């Protein structure tokens, strides 16, 4: 494992030091073409008839009309499909189709129409087994519908998606969602919610399981995972701490696993709105780091871009990381 704290290699795994690769100087995960302009995002509804459940989605398409790799995004507790738009804009400008899910029962409807003193209790109540299972099933339902839309003659997504190249990202409760559909084991050792169509996962503010331990839950994750958290990434409504979030990466097996820890990064660092309990304004460099590392990750593992992988596993991230940020892989 290579650890970069402000880009200085300082650690190893099991006594074996993994040296950084030489990066291709032509690769830049922040570069985007200024034209043609991106199309406006599409707001669509996925209807899961078996559950009598509607899943609103917002779809950001790239400017080209070739089949594009797909990135799903699952919002945090109290969020909506219109959140984290900075990710949708950048990833779609890089050639991905980005699909933001909205999960009824744990979305903005939980708190929006309530008096301020009632909002936090309502949000806490929305974190339960039922809403978690709904989220897992939403992901598979959306993938099913995207495949159908991709083959629908004359439809807005006809031929625009590559269903063989799918990744998922999520923040907070959305990270829990992504964990559950990409290999996290239950306390009895099963993976009943894994959707094997997903080939890579980006987890912002992940969480340990409520039952069991990190090693049992994450020790056999087989696909690439990237963990993002911050030194002050506690939970506004739960019991997660910056230390417990870092235990997720520690429990992962070696091989295509990555961790970013933003210095002074709070829970809000990965979103685009101020969250209750935040102590300081968001560092503007945090979004830049998130965009660079996440883009290289999805380029590497959804596109098979060797230059992107070389960028990730080299000294190149020093161009975006700030002093005190930690970046490591194993």
Overview of the molecule:
The chain is of the alpha/beta class. A ten-stranded mixed beta sheet has the order 1-10-9-8-7-6-4-5-3-2, sandwiched between helices. 28% of the residues lie in helices and 22% in strands. It has helices spanning 85-93, 116-125, 129-150, 173-181, 214-218, 242-251, 284-302, 306-312, and strands at residues 2-5, 42-48, 53-60, 68-74, 97-101, 161-171, 198-204, 225-232, 257-266, 326-329. Mean pLDDT is 92; it is low at 5-18. The chain has a single domain, classed as Alpha/Beta hydrolase fold, catalytic domain (Rossmann fold, 3-Layer(aba) Sandwich).
Brief sketch in words of this structure:
The protein has 8 helices and 10 strands.
Features:
alpha/beta, 330 residues, single chain, Rossmann fold, globular, ten-stranded mixed β-sheet
